[in-house]
Structures
1.
Amino acid sequence: MHLDHTHPHTHDGPAALSADAHRPDGRRRALRIGLGGPVGSGKTATVAALCRALRDELSLAVVTNDIYTREDAEFLLREAVLPPERITAVETGACPHTAIRDDISANLEAVEELEDEVGPLDLILVESGGDNLTATFSKGLVDAQIFVIDVAGGDDIPRKGGPGVTTADLLVINKTDLAPYVGSDLARMAADAKAQRAELPVVLQSLRGEGGVTAVAQWVRERLAAWTA
Amino acid sequence: MTRAALLVLADGRFPAGGHAHSGGAEAAVKAGRITGASGLESFCRGRLHTAGLVSAGLAAAAALGMDPAELDAAADARTPSPALRGVARRLGRQLMRAARVTWPSAELDALARQFPKGAHQPVVLGVAARAAGLGAEDAAYCSVYEGVSGPATATVRLLSLDPFDATGVVARLAPEMDLVVGRAVEAARRAVHDGVDVLPAASAPLLEIGAEGHAGWAVRLFAS
Ligand SMILES: Nc1nc2c(ncn2[C@@H]2O[C@H](COP(=O)(O)OP(=O)(O)O)[C@@H](O)[C@H]2O)c(=O)[nH]1
Ligand SMILES: [Mg+2]
């Protein structure tokens, strides 16, 4: 069946449109998870760690949205977290939030091309170019979003809130290993985040520490289980 | 036709991927050909009377119901730069997606089926205009307007140009846009009888060359 009941003409259309849960061949498409947050908070590092944690159990691919280079895609290629054909870079015309929220055309094209060319896929991670605290992903592009901030960006960010911190399906407070050096109060960050987000989950992580990306990887597995159920 | 539908299709916020493209402005800025409002005006004027006229002719012809495949081949023949042909197809595909959701139509579905990797953007624009209940003149207006407003918006970001100055440039070109639309539509009406060869075939060599260079840059703000 088709989620898009209001457009009978597109029902038998030649290509998927936006948020349709099924591909034109009737198969369920990959779960799409967006990673947003300020520049330098650890989005690419989290994507790389997720790929390493999940690539043996899932078929996955990554779309990066670099602001003016292919740095993120090239970092992932250099680190060989996935074969090159599973990593696509989208160009955003100096406006990273537009490409993930207001005009998602290029990103939709990228996720569909990945499914066409290296599919079937279970999971596609879409990394945003890094933007301000108001940048969130359109529901037409992703099924769930992770907002990544870090302790070095100031421990008042969770208190300030904003759409990313408040509404993301998962908030990651990254680089906890740096807290002692930058004088960030982790307990306060966790409490402020809880106050902003009510029941929505928060993970404090250090990719340099022992647990690494474990908790986020587990959250992704749960989302995937719900998606395929 | 409804005038409001024209505004929807012409709106720069219509989500069809154009925001990531500068219409050649980024290459022209880097080459020092656009350094302020007057350079932007010259650039846009040149673009309007060459690539702009060609695109408007194709869009008008598609809106009149000419065979999209024939028009797509005509667009290829009028676009020497492989990089620009690729960009036109990518933007065509993105517009196709947006238009199919916005104005569901059998013609757009057929076009998407025939060109799964995208047809040239002006051709899709013409078919989208038909689906929106618009005519050839409307399609040509959308085409010339975005061909000028796209580089103007991009230049605001590239040079931190005063946005009022950039908008003034676009407004000053309005009478010339009218002229170009008139020529494009007239050619398109003739093409219905005489074939695609009578469609405008003007060219802007610096745009083509600039696009080839730009496609190879490692660091850039815009996709084209
Ligand atoms: N100390 C520390 N550094 C980290 C951690 N996660 C990422 N980084 C570093 O922070 C910098 C920015 O990370 P990156 O993933 O590129 O950020 P992005 O801009 O959000 O994609 C890089 O030098 C990473 O190695 C962490 O948990 N602890
Ligand atoms: Mg990154």
2.
Amino acid sequence: MPERTMFTMGDIACAEGALSAGCRYFGGYPITPATEIAEWMAVRMPELSGAYVQYEDEIASITSVIGASWAGIKAMTATSGPGASLMMEAVGLAVMTETPIVIVNIMRGGPSTGQPTRGQQGDVLQAKWGSHGDYQIIALTPASVQEMFDLTVRAFNLSEKYRVPVFLLADEIVGHMREALVIPDEKSLKLVSRKMPKSEPSEYLPFKPDDDLVPPMALLGTKYQFYATGLTHDERGYPTDSDEVQIELVTRLNEKILRHIDEITEVERYFLDDAEIAIVAYGTPARSARRAVKDARAKGIKAGMLRLKTVWPFPEEPIAQLASDVKHIIVPEQNMGQVYYMVRAFAAPTPVHLMTKPAGTPQLPDEILRKIMEVHAK
Amino acid sequence: MTATAEQVTLKHPMAKYIREDRMPWIYCPGCSIGIVTGMITRAIDTLGIDFSKVVVVSGIGCSGRTSGYFKTGTFHTTHGRAIPFATGVKIANPDLELLVVAGDGDLAAIGGNHLIHACRRNIDMTVVCINNFNYGMTGGQFGPTTEHEKWTQTSPAPIGNIEHPFNLVKLAASSGATFVARWTAVQVRRATKSIEKGITKQGLSFIEIVGACPTAYGRMNRLGEGVDMHKHLLEVTDIQNGLPPHEAELDYARRIVCGEFVDIEKPEYTDVLKQMHAKVRK
Ligand SMILES: Cc1ncc(C[n+]2csc(CCOP(=O)(O)OP(=O)(O)O)c2C)c(N)n1
Ligand code: SF4
Ligand SMILES: [Mg+2]
């Protein structure tokens, strides 16, 4: 399809991004504020001979998505806090079996049922630490309707490339805001698909990695026979109690992301060249911060912003660099402080100031400006 | 003793379906799970279907280890989630034959919701449930099929289990499964036939195999060794093919009603999906 423009909401842009990325399977359970993704998929999937499947819960949804991926179809699910919590065990299964899937979390107010129709950024640490065991995750954080599309495409590409579950973490405001969306010509989109094995079926080792630490992935129902399990397994896929294999596997699962951190993490630099005070933000607060930086500049304060488009793996290097360039860092988050602790870890000894707001109304530009002025006066 | 040439070439006729390099398997002596694995290989062999198009999925538990021994595309999901995984595979590639093998705990406790909804959807797959009346893998605790007052690690003597069990045949039938059967591990030929029918059936087939877990359930309830437990199953089996499913009683000590209870035709999920796609394209 040629390039087209829509005036639409973030959730729908996300669904369109998935479809443009080649997603043809959506498994989900309705939940505010992610429901529009499911509703859009229910309309669009049949047009593309794809499947919209509504399950009995989020556990079934995500597990079926893992199944669809092993049958060779790009697949995703979309949810919000309560559903994300239910999905956590299966996130670990996707990590351990190296299954490319995309999980969208349109974050709402929590804990528990919280404020279903109000936005928050309370699930950022959950995305990284929510499932048990030691693993890395990729999580992308869009801040506009266009990015809901672009980063969903990117989420699929990264999941396919590294054979990992990838989160799209958007707050409700980004999910529900309406803006112009340009859907590029489908030929201009760069799409990535997982590596398939080239070896003879008799020689295929399903979990033997290539040099990039990612093993080629055979599909179910092909001439390749294999056993994929959430148990610790060797290169043949066979379960084992061995310390050696456990250490090797867990190390590789972590390293295959960490070794490619520069390629995975994306940040946007805004007025940072001569900045003395930097905002580090993602999602909706970054939109307020953009305005606050302009207003601060108008007052002669050298402010700037580093906007995170990827929160996991954490962009350590850009933060460390920023910390050596500026005098102060301010982190406004729509939560009690989550990314803040990561920023602090890599910014030391540069002071990092947290602005918390665990509420549906994000930090407004004026509030951030006041904080910039307060820090500037120090 | 040195092996003779003849002994070396002797091979189990079903070995071609099994990952021999994973033998010996983890099952205890006297356990029914190996028998059920054998039933499945024989059903596949008789049907003569392309084994590479068969996908075996299981959850967690002793029964849940079954998938790992089949030499085809196999997947070991999280506890209780074999059916949703298999559903995703089937919808993504309806040409594949999906076999789910798991335990009573996996399919009727933690995965119970998925079982009833898969029956309701009538998605084409064959679910083989190995009912050994307890959670064998974790050492023998009571579960959704443990009978009243039976002893387990978490329902110890003198009280025993204060709950009452599901009758899985009734559960699957009333949830909408299009083929429902029950056998014990000793009716190998009949059970194998039902598994064949289940695989051939375009819809959700649920086959319960009542089995023995001598190590945990048998020991705690003084039911004897594996052989004794299987002998008992033979004695109490009451074959009643075609009986209405709501009459398919299971009373371990006295009478286990076995047979094929449901065999009906209903639109299958992936077929309907295909028709709907054609409708949209028009
Ligand atoms: C989420 C979760 N909870 C608990 C367990 C522990 N667990 C492993 S197997 C099992 C019970 C299996 O029972 P059943 O399905 O009847 O299989 P059996 O071992 O009896 O064949 C349990 C509770 C687990 N693996 N995952
Ligand atoms: S514990 Fe019970 S179910 Fe598990 S292998 Fe042993 S006998 Fe079989
Ligand atoms: Mg059991």
